Amino acid sequence: MTQSAKAPGKSFRKGMSLVQAVRRFSNEERTERWFIQSRWPDGVICPRCGSENIKERPTRKPQPFRCYDCRKDFSVKTGTVMQGSNLSLGTWALAAYILTTNLKGVSSMKLHRDLGITQKTAWHLAHRIREAWEDGSGLFGGTVEADEAYIGGKEHNKHEVKKQHSGRGAVGKAAVAGVKERESGEVRAKVIDNPTGANVQEFVRSHTDWSAMVYTDESAAYHGLNRMRETVNHSAKEYVRGQAHTNGMESFWANLKRGHNGVYHHFSVKHLSRYIKEFAGRHNARPMDTEDQLRGIVSGMVGRTLRYRDLIGAKQSGQPRLV
Ligand SMILES: [Zn+2]
Asked: How many helices (H) and strands (E) does the chain have?
């Protein structure tokens, strides 16, 4: 099936089957052409100095491009999360395809098997693709749902958490705040290190304009939000009262939690913000054609880096947790 759910303003979004993706990215030369076109739709420019005075070398050696202004060589990987990677562009494209089309995410173990690379490489690759997902920009207006979720928890604290019987479900877990604009269906979500009312409100205000009507639960965290607001009383089982509900945000959390429990088993708090980027980025790109989703990831790769040693952190000893 290559055509599926309706997108705003379009009758269909154009999908891409796994077989089509494998065919499309099996030839490295054609795949490089696709990356070049996705990164520089208006023509190749130097990633270092921005010059258009570029020569392309048919031999691709020592690098496919040379800038005549700064006299440096470069490739389509230069200045992106792919810089320094020995993986083929086909592997990068297929990894992006697999992560884009699996709505609950994909474990590094699965990527390792599907792409024929080591699990460590797959883990680093997946984190670099997460880093490339677009954050989304612009303020939400109209009807907006705001809600928080509590994710994971430090494994070694689990015992402690159980013993604490706090009843709030938040001890030892990481707080994530989210807003969803009803009309566009877009979501913004962020890990809130210190989930006080002030910090949660600051997050909601930073993503909504003055015209927004914000629906929240009755949590005291939203008192004094400084936006028009209606609440839905979850504790009284009043989940839906006309328009006043947070079901959209809750279904986003439900999918995130299904990914957390079923695919990744454990998001370490250290990497949680990158998983949130993945789930929000994938959610927001859903109305787009698969081809455009992949091109969006390529543009998001530009100007970002994520070295393996930074990912595992200098202080960490032994094996990184591979999820
Ligand atoms: Zn240059």
From this structure: 11, 10
